[in-house]
């Protein structure tokens, strides 16, 4: 339909303002061509909150964001890549609740390097109140990207984080529990998606995307990550 | 102001009479040159002792200070009783103990020596504003302008010696028109007082060259050609001397005689900021306290701005009606001078500090001032057109998080080259804030990429999360269970290492998927009873 010359000339009229043009901001390639095609601007927004709902840890949610982290950390003027309040233990079935028997989870540096993330840009923050630390990091302007695991995030606090990203020009990945309630609640995040495990990758459901469209995708990881 | 030599100082410094007859007198026909400057050189031969014990070292038993150099340790100073038995500086500790078995030996403390020297410099500033430190064991005072205030060099010297004695130090003094000559003569130890520049050469002539502290090789070469005193060195032809020993040593001789200028940096006492404020009412609550502290922090910021300095330590002491003072110490990674930043950090620190009673007074004490590096702002905002975050933003963030969460909660990561997964990743508390120059940044990235390929085990897939302690898994029919049966994927990776550190592991690691699709890293012990453990989670 877009190929129609009459429609193209009509759309060139400056009086017509289209929804997708709102998203013409700088982006970070996700590393997955199918996801790039779905997101406006061919990638994660460089500024804003990306809310990722997961049923539990380690279904491939980090593999989804690692290519972007590697890309950002290798920029010549890279800022910090901050990991806020990494989860305290393997999540139990009920959601993001720590599994106390086995102590805290620690970020494993060799794996990060193997995925191409420059370790000199990685900052780990352990915080009881991740939202406060997260907001500080986002608005400081010292971070390129902030990853945070939050158990409870009221809609108001997600909005605060979104405003903080705009102030510090930062990208935030917010990992939250996927449940019927979180799926229902409104969110001010720029991108919101839900993940489900799938063989060889993840099934991604784009719930909200500023300037883009919703959709279902199957993301497959490269052979050595499966 | 007197130009004629006064013997009083010399008599006071040492009771024995100076050997002035060695100094050749100039014929009267020559006009006497008036010195523009007069320097008192103070040399502290027993500084290492005095710094540790104060003046009491003479009263205690035999005592020697030793310094470790490489594997050997030797004596750097010995008190009178030890010296009486033949213990000398430069001796090895074994020799000294052989001479004097009940010798007390203490290690040298360079920091205390430096502190004592600075204290003496502070005392010396009573007599003249131009005091310079001659590390490690000397002081120089320019006293030309102060002589008439203290009624001559002798009384000034006596007062200075008394002031030093109160600090626990007994320096040896010498007076000369050039700083180098004063210091060299003080090191020589014999009374030396020359106020007339024309007489300086003659007075210095009998002094041994060792007082100039030239390198031992140079002194030995000079000794081999029969040159042992300053006078003999001065008689050598200048061109030849410069060619053989270098221009620097010739320059040293010129400065010694005042032929070339010798500029000294004046010692400035370290400044600190301290202000106390009592409240007319009792302050409760953080916000009220912060509002009350704000003007004090403003004052501090103005104080720092005027000196172009910053502080790395700030103590805020809260006084109460009955309870003891609550101290709150703020330590910063980088020097801070802006009131806003100090206020934010202090607010974070006070937020987590409980205080027993309402606050009646508060006091701010700064640590030592440190020069503030000049900063430039980036043209681009962070994040746009490749503009990076400024150094300041990065430091601010780390300090802000650490003030609230504690120092250990904020860290960087580093790889430790070992096969044992538990040790391969380490928290690095010393966070390098971002490299400043683009060359550094590129070098850092290049080093990272080099590290990527280097350790061979990086080729194996590792989980992104590692459990601090491996978690024991129940097993059914020899297979691990975690939230239901685990499905093992692929071939095991065997890690067997660490036997040389009493920390041996022998494990077969598997990738596994649990029933809900989580990817985990499990291992089976190779030794009986072959238990299964969960050790990591893939992202």
What does this protein look like?
The complex is a heterodimer of chains A (226) and B (539). Chain A has 226 residues and is an alpha/beta fold. Chain A has a single domain (40-89, 99-225), classed as Rossmann fold (3-Layer(aba) Sandwich). Chain A is 27% helix and 27% strand. Chain A is built from 7 helices and 11 strands. Chain A has helices spanning 5-11, 33-38, 61-73, 109-114, 130-140, 155-168, 180-184, and strands at residues 27-28, 44-45, 48-54, 80-84, 105-107, 122-125, 143-149, 171-177, 191-198, 201-209, 215-220. Chain A has an 8-stranded mixed sheet with strand order 6-4-7-8-3-9-10-11, with helices on both faces. Chain A has a two-stranded antiparallel sheet with strand order 1-2. In chain A, helix 5 (130-140) packs parallel to helix 6. The N and C termini of chain A lie far apart (38 Å). With 539 residues, chain B is of the alpha+beta class. Chain B folds into 3 domains: 1-16 and 33-269, no CATH class; 274-371, DNA polymerase, Y-family, little finger domain (Dna Ligase, domain 1, 2-Layer Sandwich), CATH 3.30.1490.100; 463-537, no CATH class. Chain B has helices spanning 8-13, 47-53, 80-84, 93-99, 110-124, 153-167, 179-188, 200-204, 216-224, 230-235, 238-245, 247-257, 286-307, 339-351, 391-405, 421-424, 438-453; strands at residues 39-43, 63-69, 72-78, 104-107, 131-134, 138-142, 172-176, 274-283, 309-319, 326-336, 359-366, 369-371, 410-415, 425-428, 465-473, 475-476, 479-480, 487-497, 505-513, 519-525, 532-537. In chain B, strands 8, 9, 10, 11 and 12 form a 5-stranded antiparallel sheet that branches. In chain B, a hairpin with a 6-residue loop joins strand 20 and strand 21. In chain B, helix 5 runs antiparallel to helix 6 (153-167) and helix 13 packs antiparallel against helix 14. The longest helix of chain B has 22 residues, at 286-307. Residues 9-33 and 434-454 of chain B have low confidence and may be disordered. Chains A and B meet through helix 3, strand 5, helix 4, strand 6 and helix 5 of A and helix 15, strand 13, strand 14, helix 17 and strand 15 of B. Strand 6 (122-125) of chain A pairs antiparallel with strand 13 (410-415) of chain B.
């Amino acid at each position: 339909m877009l190929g129609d010359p009459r429609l193209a000339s009509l759309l060139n009229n400056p009086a017509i303002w289209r929804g997708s043009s709102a998203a013409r901001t700088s982006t970070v390639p996700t590393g997955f061509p199918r996801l790039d095609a779905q997101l406006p601007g061919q990638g994660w927004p460089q500024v804003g909150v990306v809310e990722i709902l997961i049923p539990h840890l380690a279904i491939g949610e980090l593999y989804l964001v690692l290519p972007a982290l590697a890309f950002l950390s290798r920029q010549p003027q890279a800022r910090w890549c901050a990991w806020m309040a990494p989860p305290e233990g393997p999540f139990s079935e009920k959601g993001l609740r720590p599994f106390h028997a086995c102590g805290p989870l620690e970020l494993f540096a060799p794996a990060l390097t193997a995925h191409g993330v420059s370790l000199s840009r990685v900052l780990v923050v352990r915080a009881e109140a991740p939202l406060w630390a997260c907001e500080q990091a986002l608005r400081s302007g010292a971070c390129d990207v902030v990853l945070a695991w939050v158990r409870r995030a009221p809609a108001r606090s997600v909005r605060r984080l979104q405003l903080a990203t705009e102030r510090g020009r930062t990208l935030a990945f917010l990992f939250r529990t996927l449940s019927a309630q979180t799926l229902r609640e409104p969110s001010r995040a720029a991108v919101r998606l839900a993940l489900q495990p799938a063989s060889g990758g993840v099934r991604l459901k784009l719930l909200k995307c500023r300037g883009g469209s919703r959709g279902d995708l199957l993301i497959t990881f490269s052979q050595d990550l499966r | 102001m007197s130009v004629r030599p006064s013997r009083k100082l010399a008599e006071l410094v040492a009771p024995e009479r100076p050997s002035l007859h060695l100094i050749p007198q100039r014929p009267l026909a020559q006009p006497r040159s008036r010195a523009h400057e007069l320097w008192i050189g103070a040399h502290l031969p027993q500084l290492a002792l005095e710094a540790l014990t104060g003046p009491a070292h003479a009263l205690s038993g035999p005592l020697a200070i030793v310094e470790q150099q490489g594997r050997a340790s030797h004596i750097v100073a010995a008190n009178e009783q030890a010296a009486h038995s033949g213990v000398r500086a430069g001796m090895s500790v074994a020799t000294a103990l052989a001479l004097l078995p009940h010798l007390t030996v203490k290690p040298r403390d360079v920091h205390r020596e430096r502190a004592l020297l600075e204290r003496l410099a502070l005392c010396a500033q009573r007599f003249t504003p131009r005091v310079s430190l001659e590390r490690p064991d000397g002081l120089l005072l320019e006293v030309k302008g102060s002589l008439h205030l203290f009624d001559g060099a002798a009384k000034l010297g006596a007062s200075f010696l008394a002031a030093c004695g109160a600090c626990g130090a007994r320096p040896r003094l010498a007076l000369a028109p050039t700083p180098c000559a004063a210091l060299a003569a003080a090191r020589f130890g014999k009374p030396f007082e020359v106020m007339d520049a024309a007489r300086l050469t003659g007075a210095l002539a009998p002094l041994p060259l060792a007082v100039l502290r030239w390198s031992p090789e140079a002194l030995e070469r000079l000794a081999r050609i029969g040159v042992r005193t300053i006078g003999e060195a001065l008689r050598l032809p200048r061109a030849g001397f410069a060619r053989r020993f270098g221009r620097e040593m010739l320059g040293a001789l010129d400065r010694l005689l005042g032929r070339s200028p010798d500029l000294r940096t004046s010692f400035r006492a370290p400044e600190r900021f301290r202000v106390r404020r009592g409240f007319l009412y009792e302050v409760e609550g953080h916000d009220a306290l912060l509002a009350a502290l704000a003007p004090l922090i403003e004052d501090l910021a103005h104080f720092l701005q005027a000196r172009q300095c910053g502080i790395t330590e700030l103590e805020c002491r809260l006084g109460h009606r009955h309870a003891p003072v609550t101290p709150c110490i703020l330590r910063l990674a980088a020097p801070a001078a802006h009131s806003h930043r100090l206020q934010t950090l202090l607010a974070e620190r006070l937020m987590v500090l409980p205080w027993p009673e309402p606050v009646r007074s508060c006091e701010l004490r700064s640590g030592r001032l440190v020069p503030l590096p000049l900063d430039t702002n980036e043209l681009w905002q962070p994040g746009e057109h490749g503009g990076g975050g400024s150094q300041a933003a990065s430091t601010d963030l780390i300090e802000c998080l650490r003030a609230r969460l504690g120092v250990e909660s904020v860290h960087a990561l580093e790889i430790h080259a070992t096969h044992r997964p538990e040790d391969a990743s380490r928290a690095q508390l010393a966070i390098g804030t971002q490299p400043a120059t683009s060359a550094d940044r590129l070098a850092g990235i290049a080093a990272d990429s080099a590290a990527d390929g280097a350790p061979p085990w990086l080729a194996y897939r590792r989980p992104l999360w590692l459990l601090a302690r491996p978690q024991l898994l129940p097993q059914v029919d020899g297979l691990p269970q975690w939230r239901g049966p685990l499905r093992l994927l692929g071939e095991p990776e065997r890690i067997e290492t660490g036997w040389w550190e009493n920390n041996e592991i022998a494990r077969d690691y598997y990738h596994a998927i649990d029933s809900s699709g989580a990817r985990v890293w499990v291992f089976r012990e190779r030794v009986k009873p072959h238990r299964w453990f969960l050790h990591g989670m893939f992202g």
